[in-house]
Amino acid sequence: MSALALTSRKTQLALLERACRARCAARITLSGSGRAGDDWVQTRFRALEPDALVMQWPSGGTGSVAPDGATVDVFFHDADRLLGFRSETRGRVSIGRDGAAPRAAWKLAIPLCVEPREQRRHARIRLDGARPVHALCTSVLGGERRFATVVHDLSRGGFQASASVREAGWTRPGDLFWASFALPGALRPVEFVARVAHLRTCETEGTVLLGCRFCPVDDATEHNRHLARLWQFLVGLGSRPPAHAAADQREGA
Predict the structure, then answer these.
(1) CA-based diameter of the chain, in Å?
(2) Do residues 4 and 81 make contact, with C-beta atoms less than 8 angstroms apart?
(3) What's the N-to-C CA distance of the chain in angstroms?
(4) Does residue 193 contact residue 139 with C-beta atoms inside 8 Å?
(5) What is the dihedral of CA 81, 190, 125, 5, to 10 degrees?
(6) Which of 11, 24, 148, 161 is most buried as measured by Cβ atoms within 10 A of its Cβ?
(7) What is the distance between the alpha carbons of residues 105 and 114, in angstroms, rounded to a whole number?
(8) What are phi and psi of 5, to 5 degrees?
(9) Is residue 80 packed enough to be buried (19+ CB in 10 Å), middle (13-18) or exposed (0-12)?
(10) Which residues are 161's β-sheet partners?
(11) Residue 226 in contact with residue 246, Cβ under 8 Å?
(12) pLDDT for 171-221, tens place per residue?
């Protein structure tokens, strides 16, 4: 089965609506704790509203996950595929429809993106000491929001880069970008849709360090062709990936 293409906002919202109709089970964890974290809550999808995603109120409460104001990761299955998204809890509410008695529910912010969350292992090649590689990141929500980065490592799964905090300080985990790589010696750049998986601000250096994960796009053939060009570049640096690259399991890279 080809990779699920979820870069379309319409596709993502339709998927969430389907999960609500089916009352799909979901696991909610504090961001950063991962699927196997101790801070998790089992619940179900209930309704997609214009300004919120409504979940069933967990039978045992939300535990150590704050019901309001917590950044969380939500995991659920669509057929045999594990999907996930990042959101923010918006508190407990009472909802009743068609004359039914009000029932407790849990509101979440509508996520910016929904995507496959299977962990993969990718050989990673560090670019320290090599010719500098730059990528221009442009927000998919608006072309006026963009910033240049210096890429520190690359793999088939993603990349790590740094940018000026003045230009990229507004970026947050979950943001989607078009990442255009100007590879040394290449006539044309290679471009991917990428999601910011994690970031760290280095105030003393005035930079933001971003870990980004490549996202499947609607045209899988084009995506794979660009990946092939990128891998050819990696091998052309003079390092054979199996011998000189670390197998990286971190999400977003």
Answers:
(1) 69
(2) yes
(3) 22
(4) no
(5) 0
(6) 161
(7) 21
(8) -95, 115
(9) exposed
(10) 151, 210
(11) no
(12) 988 889 999 988 777 777 888 889 898 888 888 889 999 989 888 665 667
Beta-carbon contacts of 168 under 8 Å, excluding residues fewer than 6 positions away, are 137, 147, 149, 208, 210
Distance between CA atoms of residues 181 and 223, nearest Å: 13
Give me 25's structure tokens. Answer: 């089970």
**Paired sense of beta strands 122-126 and 115-116, if any:** unpaired
Type of residue at 51: D
The token pair at 119 is 């962990």
CB proximity list for 59: less than 8 A, separation 6 or greater = none
What amino acid is encoded at 184 in this protein? P
127-157, pLDDT tens digit by residue? 766 567 889 999 988 767 899 999 988 877 7
Cα–Cα distance measured from residue 24 to residue 21, given in angstroms and rounded to the nearest whole number: 8
